[in-house]
Write a structure and sequence with these properties.
415 residues; alpha+beta; seven-stranded antiparallel beta sheet; three-stranded antiparallel beta sheet; 15 helices; 41% helix; elongated
Length: 415
Amino acid sequence: VYTVQIVNMNNSESQTLQDVTSAPVSHYAQSSPEALQAYYKRLFPIKKLFSWLSLENNDYFQRREFSHTIDTDLFTRYRTFNNAEVWRQALIKETPSRIEIGAVYNQEPKKTAFELKPVEKELVFDIDINDYGDIRTCCIGSKVCTRCWIWIDIAGRVLDNILKEDFGFSHILWVFSGRRGSHCWVSDPRARNLSNASREAILSWISVVSGGSNKDLFQRVKLGLTLHPTLERIYTSVLESKMESVIENQGLLKTLDSLETFLLFLPPDCNSAPLIRERWKSLKDIDPVSFWKNSFVPTVKHELNKPNLRWNTNPIYNIVFTYTYPRLDVGVTKSMNHLLKCPFVVHPDTGKICVPFEPWLPFDPNSVPKLQDLYQDLNPDVQANEKLKPYFDLFEAFLGPLLEKHRLPVKSLDF
């Protein structure tokens, strides 16, 4: 029994309780307490997660912060566990609707509230489809379909490329958030030891799209006439072709209003806008991708190549990066004490398992296993394990090289 802080998420009141594991569990949106308990007891890959979060070191694991949300409204922070079995027993007893992972501290968080300092944490990124609301046409709110998932797909490809090519990271885990996005965990020793300032510097290096609203969409990206080598690599290897997919999936350039939005990106002294507008109006049947490739882009490029050009920006680059480049949750990345959802947990609203995925391969968020389906297959549990096996294998493929790397000397990443 130990004291932990409980935050009631419904009324924002805090209270201190003894032995949080006695808190009652009543109802979850997409999963029953019985199904959750069975999942934690028989399917949740506790040993694999322990190996990752402990780096096979019990002391390291005991200084790792965990957060459990109990009965969907009791939020607990600074939980610690002595080993994998103690954590497993707590999960079975509490059946938390949400599990989040925090930093490794200089001492066990539960022992003191003084001089508590995060010393290690994976470098993490959070991509949420809600951040694309100003350009998404197929869905609204938390709803996600295969058409708008393309932005999560692009973000994975772009970030994976930059993290590997520019920073030399190699131990990168991508996890479906369970509903409308993805999480990236960079577990290289250099990444885990980054200060908050260094994490913010990496974020600054990666970020391109600034904040804004529908009214100033065309002002959210301002790139020069030529691209930085990193952005040039990303543009040619990912964004240029994916822009066509975004146009097709979202029905961009199909309406005059959509065309006018694109034309707002052109400089005021651009002579191409009237010509592009007239060409669009002259077409009986609009093929948006064809119009983009064969009319819009060539017309603007022709003006870009004119002598005595006074533009200081390339509107084609600005359009493509605005509509395709990753939009990141800054707070998640730059602060070591920020929590992030644990892989393989059950999303409380969708019942979907937060499974790992490969960012360079197609992924359908609507085809991942759900808790209720797994629960029905638990007798015998061979079928349930088979449904999760590809995701377990992917996690093990990430974990093996990481544990090998952990045994090697750590080189710092200085900024």
